[in-house]
Structures
1.
Amino acid sequence: MSLFQRLNNIKNRPARVEPGISLAVMPEGQEVSSKFGVCVMLETVEPGALPFPAPDPAVLHTNLQLVRGIGPVTEGQLRRQGFSCVSDLLVHPKWMEPAGEVLSLLQGQRVGELQLLGAGTWELLSYFSPEEILFLDIETTGLWASQPLFLIGFLYYRLGRLHVNQFLARHYREEKAVLAAAQEVFSHYKVVVSFNGKRFDVPYISGRSIEHRLFYSYPHHQVDLLFHAKRHFGGVLPNCRLVTLEEHLLNFRREDDLPGYLIPQTYHRFTQKQDLDLIWPIIEHNRLDLLAMARLFRPVLQGSFDDDNQTTFQESVRAR
């Protein structure tokens, strides 16, 4: 048997079943089965709309500063001369060549390269529809991908409602099934929004995927709200933790929320006792994190405060 065949057999091997543990039954969720085993999915529908930029890729065509060498002063001069979009520069003797390169990127929707040229995140999101954007938050047993994760939460927008899907491993052996179920969700979206997800959530999922010989990839365009929060509010707020942003931008303070540092040990205890009273605070913490990211999406990216956003967030939480 070749090395490739052996690795493929390992990849497709179901999670090992350990005797002696009766897994908790969760009436609020449903079991999701695959060739990698079983996990639990919990789904809720939340009230309220989600503010996205209008899908209009043409907005980037008016940003002359995407052309290398053009700054605010030069852009102003060019606009006064009648150059209002990148394609107009194709007849300019100095800027025609670099403008052509930018136009090629715009037409090819090469989001990563446009971002390197200085395109703003809100501008780049105009290439996507709200239904292509996925919010992500995970819960893990440690800070490094050498330790298992056990909960992957998603939030997405459909028909004017916010949908939260959470995939839970009731025991360490269900982690592989969680990763497989999450991969199916990832495959339907083009943008992943997270809070420190570029450095933590996505690399952690990728690392656990490698640990289980799944080798999933996550080529999505990523929007990390922590980066934008630090840029807009780093010198204004006491810190840029998610709960701090909630309090100051949404005027919302969580009550009885499980502190993050207690989550790993609480989950370890849950795997032993299968007591739902132990896992529900973690599930609720994850749900609140996803809702917070959704409500903070526009204020954090644009560095502004939105009264309607605040009211909708409070109502959605109280509805629970």
Note: Residues 58-126 form one domain.
2.
Amino acid sequence: MGTNINSNMFSNFSFGGGNQNFFSDYASIKNGSYSRLMKAYYGRGYESDTSTNGGTGRRSSNVIEKLIEERMNPKVSKEVQEANANLTSGISSLKSSVSVLQNEKTYTDTEKGQTAEEKVVSAMKDYVTQYNNVVMNAKQSTLSGKTSHVAGMMRSTAENADKLSEMGITINKNGTLQLNERKLKDTDISKVQDLFSSKDITGYGATVMSRLQFAGTTSGTSGTTSTDKTNSTPGTAAASLKADSELLASGKLFDMIKDKDGKETYDFDKILATAKSFVSNYNNMLDAAKTSFNSGVSANLARVKEKTAQNEDALKQFGISVDKNGKMKMDEEIFKKSDMSKLQNFFKDYGSSIASSASLVNYYMTTQANSASGYTAAGAYNVQGSARYADSI
């Protein structure tokens, strides 16, 4: 039974490699041979329509441009937002359910007449309800840092399918649980206590609790709680670049302060630190994302490089040069002599544009392409690179 569960439960949310690589490079799609191929394939989008005066005219919509725009500017639906919120709260509720099943008092009669068996049945019913709530919301959620741990929890459940079945709990094809209350009532409650015991750190209960604790402490968008800007994971680097770009594009960074003589001046140290961080995170994002096969990452990375190339001369006046690989380098001596008002005006447009594209790189890396640590936005999931669980939940 366990083998069947392992092979079938990760099957409902496939997201094929063909879709992932659908737009591997923005320029080649828009201008190259692949664009012509797509136009031919989607020829229906250009078929003639009959106009109101009896003539014919071509449809004004450009199918290729629409598809590219949808890829580069994804919209998170209301349903996904609700799933994200429900997953966060659901994880907390499920932790409470597991805690009850790990509590020794659950397995003793109460003075008010409630038997231990009744308490266990009630606790297990709540566990199944909360478990299913987490699983279903995880399938719709884009919080890959959390859903990766949910997937780990589900894998542990699949590995313990036979033990759970003995006490009336079976696993559905979509990974949710189903409880046979009558069979549970006939089960020796000591088996339930042993299965959920926190004393056995490799046991089912301890493993589930561990997964939930990790899921509850992650930021959601990635599988780590670290805020270190030197982290070279694509999502983290892109998110840090977005933050730096937004700060440089805002007027707040350039607010005047008074120096030791009472004269108003720019907070130069703060501006320099932000600019250096911007350059560092820009390069980190390029390094981390350049090997990505995700179409959204590739398209928005191309947009970042294009915008920077267009402003290469402007960047030079602030001591920021761009090499042949698109990487940035800062000359602090030139930067220190730069006009900060010109820097502010420049980053109003350039910084905002980079922030927008970096945000989308982060989006795609953490919600669609993070197969090594969680679900894609469509629900695909690879468990820590294990081929055995490389199907979709």
Note: The longest strand covers residues 48-50.
3.
Amino acid sequence: MTESYFEIKNSTFSASRKNKVIDFNLKINEPGEIVCLLGPSGVGKTTILRSIAGLQKVESGEIFLKNKLISSSSLHVEPEKRNIALSFQDNSLFPHYNVIDNINFGLKRNPTSSTKISIDELLNILHINNLQNKFPHQISAGEAQRVSLARSLMSSPDLLLIDEPFSNIDHSLKGELQANIKKILKKKKITTIMVTHDSYEAFYMGDKCGIILNQKLEQYNTPYNIYHYPNSVGIVKFLNRGVLVDAKILDNETLENSDLGKIKGNIIKKFSKGSTVKLLLQPDDLKHDDKSDLKLEVIDRKFRGTEFIYIVKTKNDDLIPISVDSHHGHYHEIREEFGIKKPIFIDHLVCF
């Protein structure tokens, strides 16, 4: 018997030979935690949600909710007996019910719950109060997603499963909805597992994130630790937030790159002196300095609102991203020289 609020132990989920996740382990200790699952399309994220909800059986392993076994190779609790709500990415509304009746259907699933949510509050924070009398075929895909989420929340589930909840939402509304939904999930302590393809979204919404690669849960940790301490080259490539460059270990806190020179910091993994490693450089690792004699050529520039990401090229043709505050005194054009602050110090040096 598990002592956590929710746990998946050594489970295999399978929708097809390719869409399969093997030996999956995940634990949620406290009610109200939000877990985000990321991974490439077709890796099996939605299959995991369907299995947790009871819509399909696990191939092996066990799933516990509130210290109760709900799935194993020999036991399968029916979906309607799990008090788990699943909000799909695609429209799953009842076509013969209008919006308000679809939402109220969630309330009927669990009328005695002590964590009821005000329907007026939901309508307002999800911006669907003007849709109450419309039917699913009369609203957009993004609106249908919000109505489906409202219905799931109204059921006051022990576990909420949401699949790409913001995929069809206008960018201008997405940030507000993310903040509103996160606030209500925390306020009502609704334990949630969310599938998303957007790492920025996952890092904002999730207390913990799990990245699924090559049929396994590659890393499960806090967003901060996944970003700053990725545990594999696969995670680095999936997040696409930095570049790997060759470096040589000089001592326990110093390495050297042929283009950048000596780099000091806390080397996370231990390597023997003289080892050649791949060093991860993320946009916020190197600092810009116009007066530095270490200069590299700018080959691209991306405006991100609060910052520019400059892509600079080394003599070895490594393309390194470097972030600069957008209020920096002047722009650097393509093919200009770009100074890098010396000595280079990076708080944690992630090497492979």
Note: The first strand starts at residue 6 and ends at 14.
